[in-house]
Design goal:
Elements: E1 11-16, H1 22-35, E2 40-44, H2 51-60, H3 68-91, E3 95-99, H4 102-111, H5 116-120, E4 131-136, H6 139-144, H7 156-169, E5 175-178, H8 183-196
Parallel strand pairs: 1-3, 1-4, 2-3, 4-5
Bound molecules: ligand Z5A and magnesium ion.
Length: 202
């Protein structure tokens, strides 16, 4: 029996440092929801498949150089170009599990020293998440996981600054999960958080 209070889908955002386990957990969460009979899709930002996304990807790979504000606005534009499709999905009942969103945009750019309010401004009007889950891990422990690629931000010193920026953005409504647990323990906590939400609870 389906007792969900609303028929729309939920917008669930996972945030956290590089290597915190977002991508692993997003796909596990989508599979879990599908097993519960809940329509769910995995989304991620940056979405490198669009023209804007390809510019972002080249920047991250260090094959192009862009001014800090220019790349900030491209990350934001990459969310804006997906806004209407996201809205359609949500209103037609699909829950979106999103791997990084506006908080990444603000955390990474403000970690470079850009003004916080300037960083937030282009995000105004994007769809507000129903749930924000922060996968909490220290930059050192995340780096120990290895596999830092050669992308622009994948350096311990910068990740420490990003961790400080996330602390500034932290809001009491966020669900903070200890990401240094086993993959399975983190997975279980995320399932409980999502099922506890009125939009996705059965
Ligand atoms: N960025 C930005 O600046 N502005 C924006 O607006 C947005 C993003 C949206 C690319 O993003 C960069 O863009 C990113 C932020 C910036 N730069 N950095 N840093 P991305 O999402 O493409 O970044 P990523 O490279 O996909 O992050 P990641 O390295 O994939 O991390 P993850 O998704 O959080 O982790 P994972 O891939 O799930 O796991 C990492 C490894 O750890 C892997 O080997 C797992 O098997 C392992 N793992 C995962 N969980 C565990 C546990 N619990 N225990 C042990 N090992 C684990
Ligand atoms: Mg990832």
């Amino acid at each position: 029996e389906d007792n969900r209070v609303e028929s729309r889908g939920a917008l669930v955002v996972l945030e956290g440092l590089d290597r915190s386990g977002k991508s692993s957990q997003c796909s596990r969460l989508v599979s879990f929801l599908e097993r519960q009979g809940i329509s769910a899709e995995l989304w991620r930002f940056p979405d490198r498949s669009t023209n804007v996304g390809q510019m972002i990807s080249a920047y991250l790979a260090n094959t192009s150089q862009l001014d800090d504000r220019t790349i900030h606005l491209l990350f934001s534009a990459n969310r804006w170009e997906k806004r209407s499709l996201m809205e359609t999905k949500l209103t037609t009942g699909t829950t979106l599990i999103v791997d990084r969103y506006s908080y990444s945009g603000v955390a990474f750019s403000s970690a470079k020293g850009l003004d916080l309010e300037w960083c937030k401004a282009p995000e105004i009007g994007l769809l507000a998440p129903d749930v924000v889950i922060y996968l909490d891990i220290s930059p050192e422990k995340a780096a120990d996981r290895g596999g830092y690629g050669g992308e622009r931000y994948e350096k311990l010193e910068f990740q420490k600054k990003v961790a400080e920026s996330y602390k500034v953005l932290y809001d009491a409504s966020w669900k903070v999960v200890d990401a240094f647990q086993s993959i399975e323990d983190v997975e279980k906590e995320l399932q409980d958080i999502v099922l506890d939400n009125p939009i996705t609870s059965l």
